[in-house]
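Database export, one record per block. Field names are fixed; values are copied verbatim from the stored entry.
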Amino acid sequence: MSDIKKVVLAYSGGLDTSVIVKWLQETYHCEVVTFTADIGQGEEVEPARSKAQALGVKEIYIDDMREEYVRDYVFPMFRANAIYEGEYLLGTSIARPLIAKRMIDIANETGADAISHGATGKGNDQVRFELGAYALKPGVKVIAPWREWDLNSRDKLLSYCEQHNIPVEMKRGKKSPYSMDANLLHISYEGGNLEDPWSPAEDDMWRWSVAPEDAPDTPTYLELSYQQGDIIAIDGVAKTPAEVLTELNAIGGANGIGRLDIVENRYVGMKSRGCYETPGGTIMMRAHRAIESITLDREVAHLKDELMPRYASLIYNGYWWSPERKMLQIAIDESQRCVNGVVRLKLYKGNVIIEGRKSDDSLFDEAIATFDDDNGAYNQQDAEGFIKLNALRMRIASNKGREL
């Protein structure tokens, strides 16, 4: 422990990370640098400064990373249509490599020889933070207090605060029973009654969206403009990446879009039940697939769909900075060169309905696809030979008496 002189801590200003500051100072006798990232969690981050100062922290970083987060992490992921285990849009997973990168940047700037985080030893986040840190700074030391200390309950943490004169902000009113994590892409809920997979999520748990049955009786229409796979405008008005996601969250939430209740397989081996609200991301996923449907070659589209589960698992498991994820990203980004155009959507009571798509790069040829007279653009007699050649191996096997 004596070789740890300075530690960069991912700091929220909450109970856990406030305890970690003091614990690091006492256990490792080191200087602590705090880093707080604003990635659109919807809470004021500036109060973390005064809280850190009260704990004796001299180097405090509070960064607005919303644009970088959406531009360099969320948008590239959505070009791949990434979904983990068929449902989860990876809202927590994709934020971790950004935080890990900034922690390493700060460690390099301040001469710190270690980083620390408040992720528990049961979850995925410890893996995501640490894989990212080791990829970007191989020799960095990682301190994960939840794997070292015995402060494994809220009561023990509060007792530690009392013993060490750590101010704790006790929120008035009923305390939420859920462990929540939010950023511009989603908000997640775990714990409480959700630990029973048979128990339904309580109606008052949801923060970002109305229930679909309570959404307006009149649908909302909007048009999303795409350039190389990314949304650049809403209803013809140019937007930055963070502005796109912020606006779609508001529109989607108001129409009851984006709620999800799943049991997922964590990388550490256990199953975990969680609920998620991803209104903007749900709209983005449907719209992106719609614009790809007219702009991507068939085999490119199918290959992307084959690669997607591996790409999604890499992000979920914390391998954003791995060479294989970077390799896949190059292929995905190459596929998006012609993914340009406009998608028209109807949002209604939890549903995202595609109403139209158009593009100057469209591969949809009405002269060939029409059921009316195609004026010779497609010779239907060609299909006979095509079918017979594709049936050849099955015909040979059948003639040999083999069971198919």
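Remark 1: Residues 50 and 372 are 71 Å apart (CA to CA).
Remark 2: The longest helix spans residues 298-316.
End of record.
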